[in-house]
């Protein structure tokens, strides 16, 4: 692949204004606290729509109101 074509391909993948996960949906189980909660926050910050799921419903709702999941 020629360098200009490769640069164009990379530019299409790096959509910084929208985030790296814009238009994607992430389902994260155990996302009420700990690593799952942090993953949900990171994915949401990158533009993904995040489905928050946890056995502790209160923690899941808390995360939902903390972020824009």
C-alpha termini separation:
39 Å
Radius of gyration: 16 Å
**Low-confidence spans: pLDDT under 50, at least 5 residues?**
none
Silhouette: elongated
Give an overview in words:
This protein is α+β, with helices and mostly antiparallel strands and 69 residues long. The protein contains three helices and two strands. Strands 1-2 form a two-stranded parallel ribbon. β1, α2 and β2 form a beta-alpha-beta unit. The N and C termini lie far apart (39 Å).
Q: Which SSEs are present, and which pair or pack?
A:
Blueprint: H1 3-13, E1 25-29, H2 34-45, E2 49-53, H3 57-66
Parallel strand pairs: 1-2
Which features does this protein show?
single chain; 69 residues; alpha+beta; two-stranded parallel sheet; 3 helices; elongated
């Amino acid at each position: 692949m020629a360098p200009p074509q490769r640069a164009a391909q990379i530019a299409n993948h790096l959509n910084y204004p929208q985030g790296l996960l814009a238009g994607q949906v992430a389902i994260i189980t155990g996302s009420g606290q700990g690593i799952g909660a942090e993953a949900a926050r990171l994915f949401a910050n990158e533009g993904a729509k995040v489905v928050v799921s946890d056995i502790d419903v209160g923690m899941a709702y808390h995360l939902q109101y903390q972020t824009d999941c």
